[in-house]
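Saturday, quiet lab. Running sequence design on the C-alpha cells for the scaffold JK sent over.
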C-alpha cells in the first residue's frame, strides 16, 4: 500500500462541505485517490470546546457525535453491550460525564468511521490522526482520574520572541510518577483507542515528554512557570509492550518499505526550541519528526531545520500546520527579505508557476522528507480567510469549510502530476 515517498492532504472533517462524515467524506477519499495522494490527515476527533477547538476536548477517548452523518440511526442493546465490554476502560466515565445516550453515539461513530476507513484502505489512502498531549480542565478524564494529574499547576509554554510572557494554556499537567505506578495504563489505553482508528498519529507537543512548562495555577501569565521533568521513553516502552509496533504500524513506511519492529506508528511533533534530549528521544524511538515549509525561509537562520537543504528523509514535511496561515496568505504577507529567499529557492528549482502557492507545493514535494503533507486550502489557492486557526484568538478559528465543487477534477489531475514528478504518487 505504501512506497518510500508519499504525500497527502490535511483537512479536518468539519472542513468538508457539510462538516460531517458521509457522502462528502467518501467523495474526498475519491478525490485523494485521483490526485495520487496516499494520506488524509485530520485534527483530533473528540468533542470540541465552546470555541470549536478539538485540542481542548472533554474526552481523550470519546468521539464527537457532531461529526455523525446519521445521528439518529438505531443502536441495538447487543451493540451497546458489546461496545461497553470492548471499551470498558473509559466508557463508563464518559457516560457519567456526557449523560444518557452517550454510549449509543459512540456505537454510531464506530459504524460510520469503520465504513469510511475501509473505503479509504480499498483506495490506497491511509488516515492520520492527532493526539493532543494534554486533556481539558474538568473534562471527563480529569474528573475520572484526578490522581493522575498534578495539583496547583497548569500547562503552558515559556516566553519567547513571539510571546514575551509565554503561553498560558491552562490544561492540567500529568503527575508522571503517579502514572508510572500504574504502568502508564491511561496512556496505553489512550493510544490503543486512537490507533484503532488511524494508520498513523501525530503526537502533539512531543517535547513535553522530555520536559514540560509547569505554571502555577494562580499565575497571571506563563512567565512564572518552570521546566519540569517528563517521563522520557518509559511511557512509550509501556505502550510498545502492550500494543507492539513495526509490522502493524504504517509509520514504518517513512523509514523505507520494510516494517521496523517495535516502532509505533507515530509522528513526533517536534516544533519549537528542541533540545538534544528531545532529539535523542525521538531518534531512539525511531519516530519521524516534522518540518514546516513556511519556517524555512529565514535569511538569519541558515542552519534552521526547516530549510529545504536541511531536511532529512525521516521527517514529515508540512507546507503549514493548522496553526499556520495558508500558503497564499503567508506568501502575500511576506517581508521583502523572506520573499527574496522564496523567489531564489523557486527559481533555483525551476518551479515558477503562475500561482506562487503552486510553486511552493512543487518545492515541498521535492523535499527529501519521506512524507509531504499539503493543506487542502493550499491546493485550492485560498487566502488568509481560509486559515484554520489563529493561535491566541477567540471566535475566528476552527471554522473553515470547503464549498461544494472546490476540489475539482482539474485540481486532482494537476496535483497528481506534481506528485508523480516528485516520485510520491501512490
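Result came back. Writing it out in full:
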Amino acid at each position: 500500500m505504501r512506497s518510500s515517498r508519499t504525500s497527502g492532504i490535511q483537512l479536518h472533517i468539519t472542513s468538508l462541505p457539510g462538516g460531517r462524515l458521509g457522502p462528502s467524506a467518501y467523495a474526498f477519499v475519491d478525490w485523494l485517490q485521483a490526485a495520487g495522494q496516499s494520506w488524509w490527515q485530520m485534527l483530533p476527533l473528540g468533542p470540541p470546546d465552546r470555541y470549536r477547538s478539538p485540542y481542548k476536548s472533554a474526552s481523550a477517548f470519546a468521539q464527537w457525535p457532531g461529526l455523525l452523518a446519521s445521528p439518529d440511526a438505531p443502536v441495538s442493546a447487543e451493540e451497546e453491550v458489546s461496545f461497553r465490554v470492548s471499551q470498558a476502560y473509559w466508557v463508563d466515565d464518559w457516560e457519567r460525564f456526557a449523560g444518557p445516550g452517550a454510549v449509543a453515539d459512540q456505537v454510531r461513530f464506530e459504524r460510520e468511521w469503520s465504513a469510511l476507513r475501509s473505503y479509504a484502505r480499498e483506495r490506497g489512502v491511509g488516515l492520520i490522526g492527532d493526539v493532543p498531549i494534554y486533556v481539558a480542565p474538568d473534562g471527563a478524564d480529569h474528573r475520572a482520574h484526578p490522581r493522575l494529574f498534578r495539583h496547583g499547576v497548569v500547562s503552558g509554554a515559556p516566553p519567547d520572541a513571539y510571546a514575551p510572557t509565554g503561553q498560558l494554556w491552562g490544561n492540567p499537567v500529568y503527575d508522571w510518577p503517579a502514572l508510572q505506578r500504574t504502568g502508564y495504563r491511561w496512556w496505553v489505553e489512550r493510544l490503543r483507542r486512537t490507533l484503532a482508528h488511524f494508520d498513523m498519529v501525530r503526537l502533539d507537543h512531543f517535547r513535553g515528554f522530555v520536559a514540560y512548562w509547569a505554571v502555577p495555577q494562580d499565575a497571571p501569565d506563563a512567565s512564572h512557570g518552570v521546566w519540569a521533568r517528563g517521563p522520557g521513553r518509559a511511557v512509550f516502552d509501556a505502550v510498545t509492550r502492550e500494543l507492539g509496533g513495526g509490522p502493524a504500524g504504517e509509520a514504518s513506511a517513512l523509514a523505507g518499505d520494510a516494517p521496523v519492529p517495535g516502532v509505533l506508528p507515530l509522528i513526533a511533533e517536534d516544533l519549537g526550541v528542541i533540545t538534544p534530549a528531545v532529539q535523542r528521544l525521538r531518534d531512539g524511538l525511531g519516530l519521524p519528526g516534522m518540518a514546516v515549509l513556511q519556517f524555512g525561509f529565514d535569511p538569519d537562520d541558515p542552519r534552521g531545520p526547516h530549510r529545504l537543504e536541511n531536511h532529512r528523509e525521516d521527517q514529515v514535511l508540512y507546507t503549514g500546520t493548522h496553526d499556520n496561515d495558508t500558503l497564499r496568505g503567508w506568501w502575500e504577507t511576506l517581508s521583502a527579505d523572506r520573499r527574496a529567499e522564496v523567489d531564489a529557492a523557486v527559481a533555483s528549482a525551476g518551479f515558477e508557476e503562475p500561482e506562487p502557492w503552486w510553486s511552493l507545493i512543487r518545492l515541498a514535494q521535492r523535499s527529501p522528507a519521506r512524507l509531504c503533507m499539503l493543506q487542502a486550502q493550499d491546493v485550492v489557492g485560498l487566502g488568509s480567510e481560509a486559515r484554520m486557526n489563529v493561535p491566541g484568538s477567540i471566535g475566528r478559528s476552527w471554522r473553515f469549510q470547503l464549498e461544494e465543487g472546490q476540489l475539482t477534477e482539474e485540481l486532482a489531475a494537476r496535483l497528481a502530476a506534481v506528485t508523480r514528478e516528485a516520485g510520491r504518487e501512490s
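Notes for JK: Residues 6-72+106-421 form a domain with the TIM Barrel fold (CATH 3.20.20.80). Residues 194 and 335 are 40 Å apart (CA to CA). Ask whether to fix the surface positions before the next round.
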